[in-house]
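Internal tracking record. Fields below are filled automatically when a chain is submitted to the structure queue. Please do not edit lines marked as system-generated. If the sequence contains nonstandard residues, flag them in the REMARKS field before resubmitting.
Queue: standard
Priority: normal
Entity type: single polypeptide chain
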Amino acid sequence: MLYTRRGAPLSLTPDVLSSMKHMPPAYGVDTIQFLAGPSPEVLAAHGQGGHNFLAIPKTMPLVASNRDPTMYEYGAKPSTDQGTYVTIHTGAALVPPEKYMAIIAALQPDLYVALCDEITHDAKPKKIEQTIKRSAKWLDACLNLHSSHSLEGVSGMLAPIGGGNSLKERSRAAKMVADKPVAGFALAGFATGEAPGAERGALLSAAIEQLPANKIRYMPGMLSPVDLLDCVAKGVDLFDGAFPVQVTSEGYALCFPLQPSQPPPAGQPDVESGVDETKINLWAAAYRLDKSGLVPGCTCYACTRHSRAYVHHLLQTNEMLGEVLLEVHNTHHFQAFLGAVRKAIESGTFAEYHTWFKERYLQQQQPEDLQDAGKSLAEAGKDLTRPVGSGGKRPTWTRSDGDDGKKEEKDQAKQQRTQ
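SYSTEM-GENERATED OUTPUT FOLLOWS
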């Protein structure tokens, strides 16, 4: 799905979207962000639903999730039986099922996730059990309101499935909603702290094994390409599209190969500029005079019309067009990747594609010289988990012991003042 914030893509206008060769198949919005500015009352007064208000192409399904994959809106206060507390752009608010479904009725999405008592992966067993009961209660309320708002035939509901870090509770939550009259299911609470790979896979399997095979399985949360493939292998059908937006905000252009026959990008991994064979850091001074396209062979608007040097200049001068061009490319590349995944599924070769891509991606994302550089920095006392700065600028690293390298100089100055 196309990622949006408050109903709008971060850098893509409707005309740019309509001209893209690999257009996202669905338009994703976060229901919670329509509590205010615009409110459900404004949407309802405008009429004709979210497609008309947000200028979404009629051929593009609108999917309303219960969370934004790039931020966590829940947990401002503990939820109650009346509703869940969220924090949005206007502050904290209590969201009962009635308010939530008023937003859905105003948006009239093609698919939407029912109200869920969201929790993070580190929730305690008692809290997990409580949220499953509460979400089941709210699901029944949403089903009743779905009928009273005359949404049958207009919007399909996805029943949320929680369970936190417990295999038992994930399975139990799935069993509780498996027979509900819904269009599909939303696997809630993922990408909130669980380890990718075996741990996440086991939690997904515990829930999906209890669900009918002919209904949609949607997984909210931001995932890397490898994580996404792992989830497809477990049976997930629908995902958020936040990854290319996140990469764009950091100044990167995606360049990982999409097929085994595709050659690797030109150039070698560069430790100094933070470049590997999965992405290119356009903030790096190495591209200041580079006249080549962003990614050789890419057919997107940005790559066929503009150079690395130009995008590097735009980023350095904080021009909005820099992120526009990067998001055009990254969305194009990511959608081409998803197209390759769909073709592999259709041809019965997904297992082979999954194995090839995972081995290639992980190998090229951390080449030996980058690993050696990481070890050297760690031995020098650098904390590699704490970048300082914003956007995609190359971070300056803080020392893990809090020493910024100037402690001795400060001590000497203090001693001189006391003499």
